[in-house]
Amino acid sequence: MNSQNVGTSEQGASSAFYENLLVIRDFHALAEAKPYTPLPEDWFLGIADIEDSSRLIDAGKYKLVNTIGAAVISSQMNTFPERRFPFIFGGDGAAFAMPGKWQERSSASLDAVRKWARREFDIILRVAIVSVSEIRANKRDIVVARYGPNIHVDYAMFAGGGVSWAEREMKRGHYHVADTGNDEPPDLTGLSCRWTPIKATNGRILSVVAAPRAGADPKAIQDLMSELVSMTEGLARGGHPVTPETPRFRWPPEGLEYEARSRNSSIPLWRRKLTLYFETLIGHFFFKTGLKLGGFDPEHYMKTASANSDFRKFEDALLMTIDSDQKTREALTERLQKAQDQGLINFGISEQESALMTCIVPSVTSDDHIHFVDGASGGYTTAAYRIKKVRAQSS
Predict the structure, then answer these.
(1) Element (H, E) at 352
(2) What is the pLDDT of residues 261-311, one digit of tens each?
(3) Between vectors from CA 165 to CA 161 and to CA 170, what angle results, nearest 5°?
(4) Do residues 206 and 329 touch, judged by C-beta distance below 8 A?
(5) What SS3 class is residue 116?
(6) In what order do the strands lie in the sheet with 318-324?
(7) Which of 50, 68, 289, 312 could form a disulfide with 320 if both were Cys (CB 3.0 to 4.6 A apart)?
C-alpha cells in the first residue's frame, strides 16, 4: 500500500475532518490508495510505545502490555468525549491524530498515562507528539481511512509512512511529551480486561505484520496486501478469532488487578479490588445464565463484541491476528517469505494458542464498545521484533 498518488486534502483544518470521512465497509479496498485522505496540515500525531516490551512479554505479561497500550486510547477518548478522532492499537502502544488546538489537553493526557504506567506497574511508556507538517517536512506522509466493520464502530487505518517514522524518531529521543508537573491520574473509565484468552478453533492464532520496504513498487505492494487478505478468507469466519461463543468470562477475571489499578487512585487499592470482585461476580452470573437485566442482554453483547473486534488493520503495514489452520499458515508464510526475498516487504509472524481481547466499554447497554485483538503470547510485539532482527541482519 502506498499513498503517493493521493491528492491534497480538501477538508482543510476542520476539527470535524475525521467525522466527515466516508466509512469504508470493504476491508479489501484498504489495500489501495484510493480510500485514504491526507490529514490536515495543522493536525498532530500522538504516539506511545512501551520501552523493552519484549522483556515483559518474555515474562508472560502479555495482558499488561495490551492494557497499557489500550489505556493510551481510553484516556484520549475520555479527554475528548465530544469528538471522534482516528486511533489505532498496536499491542504495546498506540497512535492517534487530532487537530492542533487540542494538543495541550492531549499532551496532558499522554503524560498522565505515562506516569500511571510507571507508578502502578514500574513500566516506562514513551510518549510523543509530532506535527503533521513536521512529518511531511521529513519526506513522509500521513493519510487516513475510516473502516467500519459494522454500523456501531469504526477504526482508523493509517498509511504514508508517517506513523512508523514518528515512532522510530521517538525511540531515538527526537520527540517526547514534556512533564506537565501534574500528577493527577488519567481518566481510564471504560477500560476493561476481563476476558480470558480466546483459544484457537481452526488451529493456531497467528499475529502477522507485513511492512512495505522503502522504495518498493506501490502497485506490487497493493496487490500483495490484497492477496494476503484474500488468503485468509477461506478460513472459518475469515480467520476472525472472536466469535459470539469464544469470549469466556472466568471469575475472578484474570485482568482484575490491572483494571483496579486503572480506577480512581484516591480510593485504596483494596477497596477498588473489592468493588470489582462484586461487579464482576454479578457480570459472571448474567453471562453464565444468559439472563437479561434492563437494557443489558448478554447474548447480544457477545455478538456485538465479536462484530466490533479489530482483528486486522493497516498501520503503514498490514497487521492481522487470525485463527488459522496449518494449510493457510504454511501458504501465508511461503508467500510472505517470497515477497521479502523480492525486496517488497519485511515480515514477522508470532504463533500462539490463544488471542487476547482488551476492551473499552463506555456502557454495557450500548453497542459502541471497542475490542482490540492481539496474540496472547507475544502477538504484534513479537512479530514486529522479528522484523527488527531481519532489518538488523541485512544492514
Answers:
(1) strand 345-352
(2) 888 777 888 888 898 888 888 888 888 888 888 888 888 888 998 999 999
(3) 155
(4) yes
(5) helix
(6) 312-314, 318-324, 204-212, 345-352
(7) 312
Take residue 305 and report the three cell numbers written for it. 463484541
Element (H, E) at 303: helix 298-307
In which residue are the cell numbers 482508523 written? 156
CB 345 within 8 A of CB 217: no
DSSP three-state, residue 74: helix
Lookup: cell for 119:
507508578
The C-alpha cell of 154 is what? 469504526
Indicate the DSSP class of residue 296.
Answer: B
Residue identified by cell 489501495 is 32
One-letter amino acid at 235 equals: L
Task: Identify whether the C-beta of residue 369 lies closer than 8 Å to the C-beta of residue 309.
Answer: no
Q: What is the grid cell recorded at 377? A: 503470547
Q: Which helix (H) or strand (E) holds 324?
A: strand 318-324
Q: What is the tens place of the pLDDT at every residue in 165-176? A: 999 999 999 999
Q: Please state, in angstroms and rounded to a whole number, the distance separating the CA atoms of residues 255 and 257.
A: 6
- For residue 391, the model assigns a pLDDT of 64
Q: Output the DSSP codes for 2-54.
A: --TTPPPPSSTT-TTTTTTSPEE--GGGGGSSTT-EEPPTTEEEEEEEETTHH
- Among 184, 162, 192, 156, CA closest to 79: 184
161 strand-pairing partners: 141
Number of H helices, E strands in the chain: 11, 16
Residues in the chain, how many?
395
The dihedral built from the CA positions of residue 17, 18, 20 and 22, taken in this order, carries a sign that is: positive
Grid coordinates in use for 241? Answer: 478469532
